[in-house]
Protein: MFS general substrate transporter
Organism: Aspergillus homomorphus
Amino acid sequence: MTTNFNSSDIPRSGDIEHTSSPNDLSSTTTPAWGEKQTVDAVQPSLEARNDECTLFRNGTEKQPHLRTQANDSLQQGAPTTLEGGLYRPSSGEFPSDDSARSVPVTVGTTDADGNTYPEGGLEAWLVVFGSFMGLVGSLGLVNTIGTFEAYIESHQLKDYSSGSIGWIFGVYAFLTFFCGIQIGPIFDAKGPRFLVCAGAVLIMAMMIALGFCTQYWHFMLVIGVAGGVGASLLFTPAISAIGHFFNEKRGIATGIAATGGSVGGVIFPLALEALFPKIGWAWATRVIALICLITLLAACLLIKSRLPKKPASKENVLPDFSIFRDPVFTLTTLGIFFIEWGLFVPLSFISSYALDNGVSTTLSYQMLAILNAGSFFGRGIPGFVADYLGRFNTLIVTVALCLVCNACLWLPASDSVPVMIVYCVIFGFASGSNISLTPVCISQLCKIENYGRYYATAYTIVSFGTLTGMPIAGEILTRCNGKYWGLITFTICCYAVGLVCVTAAKLVRVGWRQAFVIY
């Protein structure tokens, strides 16, 4: 509320009287200078998000409006001492000029369920940074599978078919998402700290043991099992924890964190391509392990939850498949399934595709780095746009762009290096949202305290797409006598079905007549 004073109304020194409230029947006295002075004010509703007050100093100038978030637990009219000794005045008084400057400016949002979110602040952005670092060391390695596969296929496992080798990385990607079925509910109940630390240990063990692998079952156990479980223990909490701190800005916050996978996907292939001919396979993987150690330590220290822990009951730690009764959630999950089914095919085969078409070994490995560089921008920018134009809307547009890229660029590329590079840049940008926006879309369908459960349950189904996508693509490649047109056609079909599903999910929720509404 704002009160206006004329200069003639300003009392002079020595004749200021205390104005009592209408309910105050006691006599008033004139306070000495330096004592707390009050003026009548109407107490705003304590349920309102922010109070506004106009302060006056000696009656000459209006001070800036200060916005302070109301506390529902406060009793109306009662003066309160806030955290850190800050003072909230009672209904009958305004704070002095000095105390008003001490009141912190807080920004937050409240969702439809009454949950509040900081939407920023040091703690929240440190969680985003921790998630970013964790995804460098987990999804960054997942995005490097093309380099690993191309090297293993031509060295340690050169006697095995592409389809057989594809199963190693299929299991790797499968467990990265499948293990979330149990990790998500545990995250909701107990928080992320133990999960992230356990994942860091497994990833470090994988990278160190990788230098000793020579047999097929070695790679399956180390990369497929240990690497997949370790990546899942990091990936699920890293994404879910962000939802505890952001609501309106969740898209951009998740997008920033998800760029960690792209950064790792750029650094690791380039480093391996340079290190393989100089120090060999074993020491090259150990150098990558050292980089991962730094990033994973940051993740262990910074990723945290804001919600209280839940008791270890069945309903808190077990997945819940009853949520598939919601048709929007079911369609969204199916859409992500087909999107991920197609996503890992280019990630796995773009380097070997370039090698097969006469591109130099150096540039072939760099193709994957170029794709991941495009993905870096494709994870952050669509996340920012999604907060304003709608998460599902942005996902639909980027999935459609992935479909067009594969059909119009990769399929006719053949041995054209410029077309390959253009494809890697555009597809990398468009496919970035496949990782950064899908979790945000899922969070839009549930309460925040159930986010881990919904996310993990959805990706349990999605994981079967990542398990079978690469082996199927490898088998198609074998059946087509080493020609890539069949593999690329499979990718196009996956994105086409995924586009139909996510579009249908939005239309079921908002209605056919509001097809262009922000959602």
